[in-house]
Amino acid sequence: MENRTDVTEFILLGLSTKNEDQLVLFILFLLIYLIALVGNTLILFIICTDSRLHTPMYFFLGNLSVVDIGYTTSTVPKMLVNYLSQDKTISLEGCLSQMYFFISFGGIECLLLGVMAYDRYAAICHPLYYMVLMNPKVCTHLAVASWALGLANSAVHTGLMSALSFCRYNVIQHFFCDAPPLFKLSCSDTWANQIVTFVVGGSVVVGSFLMTLVSYVYIVLAILRIRTKEGRLKAFSTCASHLAVVNIYFGTIFFTYIRPNSIYSQEQDRALPVLYGILIPMLNPIIYSLRNKDVKRTFQKTSWVSHLLPPRQMFTTGGTKS
């Protein structure tokens, strides 16, 4: 039976349908988007222009900044346009493209968080072998694998979604095109899509989460062996903010995607992606870098004219702890 669609465009209702909320939401998300863009671009600039930050940890932070810029850009600009326009439609092709990039950057972020946790495990638990475990070749392979798996994961979901038929309703009670609300609108059997979402997407999320969890278990055990109370408190304080963001990020993703479609509630859950898809990318530069003394020192000493050309060396010996 040929899969054809009668629906050629969808209507994105956004986070609120009240006219009095449109301008407030526009200003709020415009500020968040600008902060995310400026913060992540600034991190990239600092990492590229200071050879002292050419270590594995900052290499992954640079990748994370690129992902966060793409993550927010995949949804926020369209949402901002919709808040100022009476026409809130998006074509079927545009909807699938938005879903592809959002899931891609979300998967890559999950994988990079796991890789970064492993990097911290290597630096804290095996400092003498750190540059062996995290040499430039290994770091490059880990980054490339994260990007490749994230893109491939999204391609599977988007490919299956494009095979569904949409022949009845076209109103999406969400601020962007995501898999769960599209399942609700499809007049095809979405059982296979839901299984793939659970198995393939769940493997990416759960695998990244387990890598992060196991790494931090070893990190905590290493911190507990620190003799001084001040040293332990400082180490735990450094990890607390990162662990909080990891919990929010993975927790909302688990709740949104790793569950049956039958208990999905559009009204209840359309705000959840704001946490991991918009707010977390805005907070990442602050949590991972801007609170770091090395980055703050580099930013204060950086000349915007004399440091425009990046150094030759991509990595230096030794790791930097945050």
TrEMBL record:
Domain G-protein coupled receptors family 1 profile: 39-288
Coiled-coil ranges (or none): none
Signal peptide coordinates: none
Cited InterPro entries: GPCR_Rhodpsn, GPCR_Rhodpsn_7TM, Olfact_rcpt, Olfactory_GPCR
Record field: transmembrane: 23-46, 58-80, 100-118, 138-156, 195-224, 236-258, 270-290
Annotated Pfam families: 7tm_4 (PF13853)
Main location: membrane
Signal is among the record's keywords: no
Membrane topology: Multi-pass membrane protein
A single GO cellular-component term on record: plasma membrane
Sequence similarity: Belongs to the G-protein coupled receptor 1 family.
Protein name in UniProt: Olfactory receptor
Source organism per UniProt: Sphenodon punctatus (Tuatara)
